[in-house]
Structure formats: structure tokens, C-alpha cells
Design brief:
The chain has two domains: 46 residues; 251 residues, no CATH class. The chain contains eleven helices and two strands. A two-stranded parallel sheet has the order 1-2.
Length: 338
């Protein structure tokens, strides 16, 4: 509940408390303050987005990402994103309220692509630090795992959540808690797509002809397995962001809870995928790729089921609260803004 001043609690409505303990825009100065605040907010968002665009441009020009324009590499990148796209589409269709507009989904996807650059920079800064920590304690894997839990998980899930927070979250069409899962999933799709592009282009640098298809195809296959995880993690965090929007008094802790859950799942995946598939291949008569597929399906299946459980709980509550109301056979489509 919003706290109230003692005067507000005792006030019977007979006094004008403007600029005493209450406030609403009346004077030209009040409206000027509102205008300045709005413009500063827009400027701050614009600076963040422009910085993200600059980072992506630098990756295209200097970081080798430009090779994604090669038709083969580009096709492999698109194919690698298909499993994540299918999962994001499922979450979109699972929204029992209204199907979110394509325009806002595309915007969220693009912000997910752009903000991935922030994570790349932070990860590259801390990577040598944790490598040194692992060397210091005599266990490089310890440093790697610490990096996953303290940096990679929180940062990558944080930038995906930022893509939703600076875009769709502020839109009036984000009008239900479950919308957070939808836009979170799409932000995760954007992040996974650009991450796949970086890995595939990195694997094919210096390759030519058939070698590009062979090397890039192998990298694309591995990245296709990793993509759905990004969608799952950020859809979970996004659900809590939606919960925060409609519970503003506790918004901070709710967002932190979702971010912690998503980050822990993400980091655990990164830590286990470095060990478990190789252990499976060593102890069972299966190849390394089959072992990775088995592990990813099991891990994503477990936490995908957790996500579906939240979507199902929302759907049941939504249907229960609409008992007796006329039901639409098809969810209402949200109109585009003019």
C-alpha cells in the first residue's frame, strides 16, 4: 500500500493541499517540470539505444560479424535461430489474454539484438579476471563457474530484461502480467540470434568454399541447441517483470526475484554443459553431439516445464476470474498504434 502523510490520512477533503502534501500539475512551471522529466527520460533511453547501435556497428566493422552478410553464413545464422523462434512463438500463442502486436514484438526483438553488445563487453572485461582467480586457486574450472554465476548469468539476463523494460513495458499494450513472459521470450530470441551470428562468424573466419558450410554448419547446430535456453530464461524473468508492473509497491523485489531465478538457471546451464555431455559420452556408447543433445533437451525440458507451469497457472486463474463472461473462440488481436 502507498504510504500517506499524516495530513493526508486525516484530511476530510475540505482543504487545498496542493504543494503542501499533495501535488498535481496546475501552473505553467508544473507542466514545464513534467515536460523536462519526460524529455530527460526519452534522452536517457535514446542514449542507451544509440550506444547499443554503436557497439553493434563496431562488431560489424571490426569484430568479424560482418561476415554474416555472406549468404551461407547468413542462412546458417537464420537456421540456428529456428528452434528459439518456435519456442518464442509458442509463448506468444500461449497468452490467453490478447496476442501481442507484431510491431511491438519486432521492436523488442531488435532491442534484444542491440543490447547483447553490452553483455559482450562486460563478459570480455571480467573473463581474464576470473581466469586469473581460477589460476590463483589452482582450479581454472572454479574461475569459469564463478564467472557464469557472478557475471554471465546476471548480465545477460539483465540486458534481455532491459530490452523489455525500455520498450514494451512502457507501452499501454503491455496490459497483463503474462505479457512479460511473451516479450521476455522475444528479447531472448533477439539475444540468441545475434549470439549465434557471433559464434558462427567466428567459427568460419578464414574459411572458404565448402569449408564454410562444414564448419559453419557444425557451429550452427550447437547454437541451435543453445538458443531455446535464452528464450526460457528471459521469459521467466519477463514474467516477473510483468508481475512487477501490476504490483508497483513491491516492483523492485519482484524484478530482482525474476532476475535471480533466470540468472541461476542460465549459469547452471553454462556450468553443466561444460561437463555433463562429455561425461555422458565417456561413460555411454554415444557420440559427443548426441550427448549434448540429450543434456540440452533434458535441461531445457525441465525449466521449460517450469515456465509452462507459470503460463498454465495464469491461464487457469484468468479463466476462473472470467467465469460467466462471454468467451471469445479466438484471443482478441491488439490493434497497431497509429
Amino acid at each position: 500500500m502507498t504510504k500517506r502523510d499524516p495530513i493526508q490520512r486525516a484530511h476530510d477533503g475540505t482543504l487545498d493541499l496542493y504543494d503542501v502534501v499533495e501535488w498535481n500539475p496546475r501552473s505553467w512551471l508544473d507542466h514545464l517540470a513534467i515536460g523536462i522529466h519526460r524529455r530527460l527520460a526519452v534522452l536517457a533511453r535514446s542514449i542507451v539505444i544509440l550506444l547499443a547501435v554503436a557497439i553493434l556497428a563496431a562488431q560489424l566493422l571490426l569484430g568479424g560479424l560482418g561476415t554474416v552478410t555472406d549468404p551461407v553464413v547468413g542462412a546458417l545464422t537464420v537456421l540456428s535461430a529456428v528452434p528459439a523462434l518456435v519456442l518464442a512463438a509458442y509463448v506468444w500463442r500461449a497468452d490467453v489474454t490478447t496476442q501481442e502486436p507484431i510491431s511491438l514484438l519486432v521492436r523488442t526483438f531488435l532491442l534484444g539484438v542491440l543490447f547483447a553488445g553490452f553483455a559482450g563487453i562486460v563478459n570480455s572485461i571480467f573473463d581474464p579476471v576470473f581466469l586469473a582467480v581460477g589460476t590463483l586457486v589452482g582450479d581454472p574450472f572454479f574461475g569459469l563457474v564463478a564467472m557464469f554465476y557472478l557475471v554471465v548469468g546476471p548480465v545477460e539476463e539483465g540486458v534481455k530484461l532491459l530490452a523489455v523494460r525500455l520498450g514494451a513495458f512502457r507501452d499501454d499494450r503491455f496490459d497483463a502480467v503474462v505479457d512479460g513472459a511473451v516479450y521476455g521470450a522475444v528479447a531472448g530470441l533477439g539475444f540468441a540470434t545475434i549470439e549465434n551470428a557471433i559464434y558462427i562468424t567466428g567459427a568460419t573466419v578464414g574459411e572458404g568454399g565448402v569449408a564454410v558450410l562444414a564448419t559453419g554448419g557444425s557451429a550452427a547446430t550447437v547454437r541451435a541447441l543453445a538458443g531455446p535456453g535464452h528464450v526460457i530464461y528471459s521469459a521467466i524473468a519477463g514474467y516477473y517483470l510483468g508481475l512487477a508492473k501490476f504490483n508497483p509497491d513491491d516492483a523492485g523485489p519482484i524484478v530482482i526475484k525474476g532476475l535471480v531465478v533466470a540468472s541461476l538457471i542460465h549459469a547452471t546451464y553454462n556450468a553443466l554443459v561444460s561437463v555433463v555431455p562429455f561425461a555422458l559420452a565417456r561413460n555411454f556408447p554415444i557420440g559427443p553431439l548426441a550427448a549434448i543433445v540429450i543434456f540440452v533437451l533434458a535441461f531445457d525440458g525441465l525449466f521449460g516445464y517450469y515456465l509452462l507451469g507459470k503460463l498454465r497457472a495464469y491461464r487457469l486463474a484468468y479463466q476462473a476470474t472470467r467465469a460467466g463472461e462471454p468467451s471469445d473462440p479466438v484471443p482478441e488481436m491488439t490493434e497497431f498504434d497509429p
